[in-house]
């Protein structure tokens, strides 16, 4: 028998004994930085703690480190009361599902109809209100999850400045990664990634247009799923591009990400892209099983990797090679391939959000029930930002807004949805170019890339991708600063990830692939962040260890 399959059978037997009769001898409930959603549900079911205890512990952990990390913009003032209500429901009716009573953070562009703000990191929207919960927030609440607070983000999802800092917003301050002093957290779902990495919540929700889930997950040693366009609703989420924006889970393990994903997918009348083209939704956690990968073909587009090799620290490529070796040992076939029309795809993935942003932003603003600064268009937001010192203009410019407005003036004319008038320019690339071409030509399950270069390919195509940890920069790695020069991008101990890029609606296969690599590599367990909260659950002796 495959040694890893034998290990899986043994682990399954141990976990069965945990669920049936309590922890096996030598097992202990993990610290919150490592606790999975399954761990949390076990503790809740066994009465080791309740959701109120859990919320209070996470809030205390946020209080401990948020002054240094700026991962959370604001707590939900009703979180403790919501937890108490869900505790009562658990006792009287039983749990709704695997997220019942589990605290989750939302990126600060996902609207909630409660006491929390939704600002995209700008004071322009402080105090604005919405008519209802966003569909993502509603689905999480329906699943029993507790929305613990809002995570900080790169302002306007990194769609404002060329001279930006990842993780900076006027409303939330500068988010920092926890693995190195002054670490660039990447973005734009910066706070979501950092919060998950140090255990400030069980999981978080991020959004991605062009790398905003994958990139911060990469640098913070966690799992992130960039979903297929149309799988998750963008209703009442502050947008960039309706043709590229997606919503996805960020978690410490692949299985946790799969559990959160299950709760947020599905059709929504408020988002026309979640349509009848969506296939039957599988049970994503069924993909979380260890098995031989002989039926999986993984393509490696060496043309991209070699073309960008000078931009990589050699240790990143070495870690990538080790992951490929593990996949081969698991039975997967590694196939050399190429991505055609790579240059054109790179150009298209910038053009689409330029075309969409003015109209999509105005659409969101038009739905506000309270709009304190009466900003309804991108030109008005531009002028307001010019006039507000807290927005740090011109130190942080508004290049992307100016470029979007110029595109509309030059090419779109009266067409408010400029995407349609530009579709002929790049629509064919989505079909015959990009990463779809090698997937079909070489009959591949997925492509694999270092996450540093992975986000460029699934944004404009609307396809799925997933990232998970593959290693850490070694002690002799050079320190490299971010483009602005104020944050550390690479340095000893900072995490790095590997991504798998698939077809549309391929989340199940990608989860299966990532789960099997995660189980065999166990990268996250190798190193802890330098900044870790000390608050833990106060567990009865019977729940701590046996």
TrEMBL record:
Residues 1-21 form the signal peptide. Keywords: Signal, Transferase. The keyword Signal applies. It comes from Purpureocillium lilacinum (Paecilomyces lilacinus). Pfam families: Amidase (PF01425). Residues 53-382 form the Amidase domain. InterPro entries: Amidase_dom, AS_sf. This is Glutamyl-tRNA amidotransferase subunit a. One of its GO terms (molecular function) is transferase activity. PANTHER family: AMIDASE, OS04G0183300 PROTEIN. The lineage of its organism: Eukaryota, Fungi, Dikarya, Ascomycota, Pezizomycotina.
């Amino acid at each position: 028998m495959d040694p890893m399959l034998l290990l899986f059978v043994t682990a399954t037997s141990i976990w069965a004994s945990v669920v049936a009769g309590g922890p096996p001898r030598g097992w202990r409930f993990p610290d919150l930085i490592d606790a999975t959603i399954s761990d949390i549900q076990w503790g809740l079911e066994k009465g080791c703690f309740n959701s109120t205890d859990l919320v209070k512990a996470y809030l205390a952990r946020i209080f401990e480190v948020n002054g240094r990390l700026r991962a959370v913009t604001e707590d939900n003032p009703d979180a403790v009361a919501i937890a108490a209500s869900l505790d009562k429901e658990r006792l009287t009716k039983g749990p709704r599902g695997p997220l019942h009573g589990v605290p989750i953070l939302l990126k600060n562009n996902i609207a909630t109809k409660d006491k929390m703000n939704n600002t995209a990191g700008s004071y322009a929207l402080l105090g604005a209100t919405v008519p209802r919960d966003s569909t993502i927030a509603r689905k999480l609440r329906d699943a029993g999850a507790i929305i613990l607070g809002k995570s900080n983000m790169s302002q306007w999802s990194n769609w404002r400045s060329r001279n930006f800092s990842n993780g900076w917003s006027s409303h939330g301050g500068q988010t920092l990664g926890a693995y190195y002093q002054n670490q660039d957290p990447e973005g734009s779902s910066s706070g979501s990634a950092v919060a998950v990495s140090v255990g400030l919540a069980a999981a978080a929700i991020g959004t991605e247009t062009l790398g905003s889930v994958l990139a911060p997950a990469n640098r913070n040693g966690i799992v992130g799923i960039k979903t297929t366009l149309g799988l998750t609703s963008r209703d009442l989420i502050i947008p960039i591009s309706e043709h590229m924006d997606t919503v996805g889970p960020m978690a410490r393990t692949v299985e946790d990400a799969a559990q959160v994903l299950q709760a947020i997918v599905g059709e929504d009348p408020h988002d026309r892209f979640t349509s009848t083209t969506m296939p039957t939704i599988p049970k994503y956690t069924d993909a979380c099983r260890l098995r031989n990968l002989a039926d999986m073909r993984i393509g490696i587009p060496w043309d991209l990797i070699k073309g960008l090799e000078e931009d990589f620290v050699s240790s990143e490529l070495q870690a990538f090679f080790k992951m490929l070796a593990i996949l081969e040992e698991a039975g997967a076939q590694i196939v050399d391939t190429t991505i055609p029309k790579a240059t054109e795809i790179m150009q298209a993935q910038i053009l689409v959000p330029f075309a969409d942003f003015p109209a999509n932003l105005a659409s969101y603003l038009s739905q506000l029930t309270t709009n304190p600064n009466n900003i309804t268009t991108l030109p008005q937001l531009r002028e307001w930002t010019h006039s507000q010192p807290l927005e740090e203009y011109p130190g942080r410019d508004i290049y992307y807004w100016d470029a979007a407005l110029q595109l509309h003036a030059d090419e779109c004319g009266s067409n408010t949805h400029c995407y349609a008038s530009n579709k002929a320019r790049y629509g064919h690339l989505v079909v015959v170019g990009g990463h779809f071409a090698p997937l079909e030509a070489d009959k591949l399950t997925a492509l694999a890339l270092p996450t540093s270069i992975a986000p460029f390919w699934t944004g404009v195509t609307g396809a799925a991708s997933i990232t998970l940890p593959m290693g850490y920069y070694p002690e002799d790695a050079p320190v490299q600063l971010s483009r602005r020069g104020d944050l550390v991008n690479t340095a000893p101990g900072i995490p790095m990830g590997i991504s798998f890029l698939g077809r549309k609606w391929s989340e199940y296969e990608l989860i299966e692939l990532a789960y099997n690599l995660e189980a065999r590599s166990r990268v996250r367990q190798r190193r802890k962040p330098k900044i870790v909260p000390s608050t833990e659950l106060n567990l009865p002796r019977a729940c701590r260890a046996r």
